[in-house]
Amino acid sequence: MPESLDINDATPAPAPAEGAAPVTESEETYPVPTVEFEEEEAPSELPDDRYLDRELSWLEFNQRVLELAEDPQTPLLERARFLAIFASNLDEFFMVRVAGLKRRIAAGFAVPSATGMSATRQIEAILERAHELMDRHAETFEDQVRPALANEGIQLVRHDDLEAAERERLRKLFRSDIFPVLTPLAVDPAHPFPYISGLSLNLAVEVRDPETGKDRFARVKVPETLPRFLSVDAAGHVGQVTDASSLSDEPRSFVPLEDVIGAHIEYLFPGMEVVDHYTFRVTRNEDVEVEEDDAENLLKAMEKELLRRRFGPAVRLEVADDLPPKIRELLVRELGVTENDVFHLPAPLDLTGLNVIADLDRPSLQYAPFRPTTHHKLAPVETADEQNVFDAITRGDVLLHHPYDSFSTSVQAFLAQAAADPKVLAIKQTLYRTSGDSPIVDSLIEAAHAGKQVLALVEIKARFDEKRNISWARKLEQAGVHVVYGLVGLKTHCKLSLVVRQEDDGLQRYSHIGTGNYHPKTARLYEDYGLLTKNPDVGADLTKLFNQLSGYAPKAKFRRLLVAPNSVRAGLVERIQNEARNAAAGKEAWVKIKVNSIVDEKTIDALYEASRAGVRVDVNVRGICAVRPGVPGFSETVRVRSILGRFLEHSRIYAFANDGDPEVYIGSADLMHRNLDRRIEALISVTDPQHKASLIENIDMAMSTQVSGWELHEDGSWGRTVTDGDGNRLRDLQETYIRRQPKRRAKGK
Fold first, then answer.
1. Other CB atoms closer than 10 Å to residue 680's CB: what's the count?
2. How far apart (Å, rounded) are the C-alpha atoms in residues 591 and 583?
């Protein structure tokens, strides 16, 4: 299951990109480029309260993640994973969104949101709701998941709960493997309050000088280099959890690392009396701001900014609920937070560490194994061990649906064959996020070594992947790849690959346009679409767009692409307005949208106007939604549903009835200001009738009342439906796709 659910980004998040999911979709604060937009006044008839608050809507999304952890029908270890995802999502939300609001308030630049709520009131509402959700999260772990794990022989215990012999073995482990790594930091006139790094788990230690009787404060950081939990197996062996797959289904006990450190804290303060110790955790502003007026120095500027990010101001303080007032007051004062920023929670803090528990080798407590299948158009023919991807694309466009269609035998194979094929002359590729051992990057390097012209657009401002992307940028440059960083003031978020191949009938261009990142690991966890095509119009469009990004081509026009920041919003609004005109003329009219988030006011207002004209509007949204559906007078025909599950729903689909000849687009853009105004995004029109029908069906299935999911009410609350009127469990959309995929492939559909 996926971000950082990036359900997260978000991805992941283990980091969300590497594991479960996760990731929130937070807005950036990069300089806005000079782009002309047609400004229109909002229709006067639409009420002022027609939008839901963006920040509170995100918290409602994370509540839906929490509800998956609360659901007893969710496999037990997956419930633990969803608890970890919830915690990881909230970490990022505070690091970016709450931090951004606080920064704007402090700088005097805060303006009311689209709902009219002031930034100060938003902070108050966020903290109030976050306190409720974090308490509920802790209760779910303590009252539901932890006892259920214990019933399955997976016990998360405190150090004092262990037998004497087990505690003795832990003491030996502490002396040999943990003690040498620890660094106690005292606080007194000679030692200022130490810097507390963001998201680190810490022990606040109260010690007393036996000679003077004075109490002192010290901080001990729980090392991130050591495992979060220590395992005690049934045979009494104590060891570190390093390879979850090696742990069988025999009973296991796990002790939090901070418990073990706390039980032996006196070793760190010989000659002092340890009064007590308490856990706490700090969240800091970790957003990145880079002035991009000098693109040549962007790489160095980003590296410098990443160093600065470590010292951002604190925005949240999590403390164990037994923390005494005097130490809380000390932490609040030294960290510069308010009392409302303090969250009192039962130990253990930082439940992102539950990922290691969720990864235990207990298949009966996890989702059933799933293995992607090779798309039938890309499957090897009987006379070959491997399909020639270029021959397959020549026979017709290939619409990929990940993770059900294998990424490795489609996109990854496409680029690997391009790198090895002597007929290929050039490869052009965007890279927003990728894995640490990416075969995609290896293919680009191999192609460059083979003398091919290789261009890589590496987005080094991809949040929380900046350091990794800088590393890959340098590695690609050293291999001879032409590396560029896109346009000043804009993130390159589009998912594009272009291969130029010399064939008997001349140069041919093969293209891939996707909704997801070129990330082999998250491609197994994120639901995304991609189109492989040899269509000359698409090849020409991608050539123009890559030339825009790497050189100077500001006046490029496209045939099958909508490209942000110039034409995505305008193109979508135009098509929504066309549906309104068709409805008024008595023609077939509907709008079906699937996105991660929708907050753009102009697009939402266009949907409201279409609804008033009688257009049926279906919106399937995973995360943030500012649309207020089902309100008499302006959104009566609007429905909004959300699907969350084992995979991170990540694809973007835009479909319009167009009087019986549907127009369908897929691509990288969500309906958010950052996507439409501050990013290079690309949507491609899908022309194959079967492909269009399949994409429309995806949305229709998600909107069906026969599929479990969440429905958005006009007051902004979400209601989950998991059973029908007779109490029968509704179908799970993702499991439906898993079950039907082999059959569809076998039939060649």
1. 25
2. 11
Which residues make beta-bridge pairs with 640? Answer: 619
CATH number at residue 227: 3.30.1840.10
Count of the separate structural domains present in the chain? 3
Contact in structure between 276 and 164 (CB atoms under 8 Å): no
Check if the beta carbon of residue 125 is closer than 8 Å to that of residue 45.
Answer: no
Choose, from 493, 519, 650, 691, the residue flagged as catalytic. 493
Nearest-angstrom CA–CA distance, 496 and 557: 17
What's the DSSP call for residue 450? T
pLDDT digit string, tens, across residues 694-732: 999 999 999 999 999 999 999 999 999 999 888 889 999
Most confident of the ranges 297-311, 451-465, 606-620 = 606-620
Question: Cα angle vertex 353, ends 351, 358, to 5°?
Answer: 100
Q: Which residues contact 513 (CB under 8 A, 6 or more apart)?
A: 494, 495, 496, 530, 531, 533, 538, 542, 666, 667, 682, 684
Closest CA to 17 of 442, 358, 525, 402: 525
DSSP class of residue 363 equals G
Residues 442 and 352 in one domain: no
131 catalytic residue (yes or no): no
Q: Which domain holds residue 449?
A: 376-550
Quick one: DSSP state of residue 730? P
CATH of the domain at 724: 3.30.870.10
Q: What is the pLDDT of residues 581-631, one digit of tens each?
A: 999 999 999 999 999 999 999 999 999 999 999 999 999 999 999 999 999
606 and 729, same domain (yes or no) = yes
- Rounded distance between C-alpha atoms, residue 98 and residue 661, angstroms: 44
**Gap between the Cα atoms of 149 and 83, Å rounded:** 13
Measure Cα distances from 704 to 145, 701, 707, 721, 731 in Å. Answer: 31, 5, 6, 11, 10
Do 352 and 263 fall into the same domain? yes
Determine contact, residues 644/675, Cβ cutoff 8 Å. no
Residue 51 lies in a domain: no
Dist CA 663 CA 684 (whole Å)? 10
pTM of the model: 0.88
Of 291, 323, 358, at which residue does a domain stop? 358
Given the DSSP bridges, would you call strands 424-431 and 453-458 parallel, antiparallel or unpaired?
parallel
**What DSSP line would sit under 663-713, residue for residue?**
EEEEES--BSHHHHHSEEEEEEEE--HHHHHHHHHHHHHHH-TTB-EEEE-
